[in-house]
Each structure stands twice: as C-alpha cells, then as structure tokens.
Design goal:
140 residues; three-stranded antiparallel sheet; 3 helices; 6 strands; 31% helix; globular
C-alpha cells in the first residue's frame, strides 16, 4: 500500500527577511528574519533553521527505521543538524553537517546506522549530489 502526504505552507511578505510562514492546518506559523550573523535583527527564525529542524527530524527517524530493520534496540537518539548558508561573490549555496548520537550501540554500529539513515531519509535523497553533506555518528 502506498501512502503519501503533502504539506502546504504559504509564505508571504519579503521571504527570508520579514516574511510570514503559515501551514494550511495553522500548526506552523512564524515570521522570518535575517540572523544577526548576516546583518539582520535576529528576532525571528530563518529558513536554514527550518531546514535543519526538518532534515534532522527526518534523519533521526530514518536512523530508527534502520535500527528496527536490523533488530537493534536503541536506548536513545539525538541529532544536531547544522545547515550553513554560504554566500560567494555572486551566488548562494548550502552545506550540511548531521551529528547523530545513538545510545545502546557501539561506535561501529552507530556509524553503520548513520550511513543507512542517509540512504533512507527523503531529505538526504533530495540533496544528494547537490550540496556537501557530512554525517557523523557518536555512540553514547
């Protein structure tokens, strides 16, 4: 059986600097602003934070799927997802670092699960070959 879900989010205003974001079910509603590091007020969230939250959540779920497929019982999971907006002389680009922490396994298994998660996660698939991604795993 195939399942699908489509998220609908409306963005108005000035996009990343002064924009307003609202999902069709109103569960997500926020404003956007440039971070202080880019000369903004830093008084609202930004697209890189959203992308980090979304990808990190999906990647963590993918790691748990990979563990379940291998019948590995995890005691804890966590991730720090870092999305960097790079601005060159005439273009913008992203880089990503995904720092996965997994409890209840040894380091080799943690690394294996991070690699498997990167193959399973739809966000990882979407950016594969398009932006530099580093995955790190730590057994805790």
């Amino acid at each position: 059986m195939t399942h699908s879900y489509t998220a609908v989010v409306n963005v108005t205003g000035e996009g990343r600097n002064g924009g307003h974001v609202q999902s069709s079910d109103s569960l997500l509603e926020t404003t956007l602003a440039f971070p202080k590091e880019l000369g903004g007020a830093g008084d609202a969230t930004n697209p890189e934070q959203h992308f980090a939250a979304d990808w990190g959540s999906c990647f963590l779920g993918a790691a748990r799927v990979a563990a379940a497929e291998r019948k590995i019982r995890l005691t804890s999971t966590g991730i720090d997802a870092e999305i960097t907006l790079n601005h060159g002389s005439d273009d913008y680009s992203l880089t990503a670092v995904l720092n996965l922490e997994i409890g209840g396994v040894d380091q080799a298994t943690a690394s294996e699960l991070a690699h498997a998660a990167h193959q399973i996660c739809p966000y990882s698939k979407a950016v594969r070959g398009k932006i530099p991604v580093t995955t790190n795993a730590t057994a805790i």
